[in-house]
Amino acid sequence: MVLSIIEDELAKPYAYGQSDCFSLACRLVDGLTGSDHFETYGSNYKTLKGAQRALRKQGHKSLVDFWTEHLTPVVPAMAQTGDLAILHFDGEKRGQEHCAICVGKFVTKTETGRALFPLSAVTAAFKV
User: Fold this and answer.
1) Which residue ranges in the chain fall short of pLDDT 70?
2) SS3 assignment, position 98
3) What is the dihedral of CA 19, 5, 34, 55, to 10 degrees?
4) What is the pLDDT of residue 42?
5) Is the Cβ–Cβ distance between 86 and 63 less than 8 Å?
6) Residue 95: per-residue pLDDT
7) Distance between alpha carbon 10 and the CA centroid of its chain, in Å?
8) Nearest one of 110, 71, 69 to 87, comparing CA atoms
9) Within 13 Å and on the Cβ side, how many CA atoms surround 126?
10) What are the distances in angstroms from CA 62 to CA 9, 23, 80, 127?
11) What are the structural domains of the chain?
């Protein structure tokens, strides 16, 4: 189920608030737990700045802060397939957090498509 959710999300065109790294995380968590994170939080923005504003409006300073409220943190090295991770990487949006899913490495959705990252890019992980 984890891989089918990831593949479904990665097949969609990138669009903030509809199909981005946060929606990938929300849809995975929703699919595995029966929650409704995407409907509640996912479509409240249309740009990166809008996403950051929506996060702050919910009372969160970061994606780590957001997911800590909803999931149980785990040591990143202990993340298993289907667990959620927050990562930073040196891309064109330096310093930005990204949601990723553990599949051995960590997969995320970027504006240019699928991206895989090693454990060293992970700053936090959560049990799904």
Assistant:
1) 89-95
2) strand
3) -30
4) 80
5) yes
6) 62
7) 12
8) 110
9) 22
10) 22, 15, 22, 18
11) 2-127 (3.90.1720)
Q: Which residues of 21-43 are buried (b: 16+ CB within 10 A; e: fewer)?
A: bbbbbbbbbbbeeeeebbeebbe
Helix H segments across 1-128?
2-11, 21-33, 37, 48-57, 63-70
27-36 confidence digits (pLDDT tens): 999 999 999 9
pLDDT in tens, 91-104: 555 568 899 999 99
Instruction: Write down the number of H helices and E strands in the chain.
Output: 5, 6
- CA separation (Å) from 94 to 7, 52, 58, 97, 126? 26, 15, 24, 9, 23
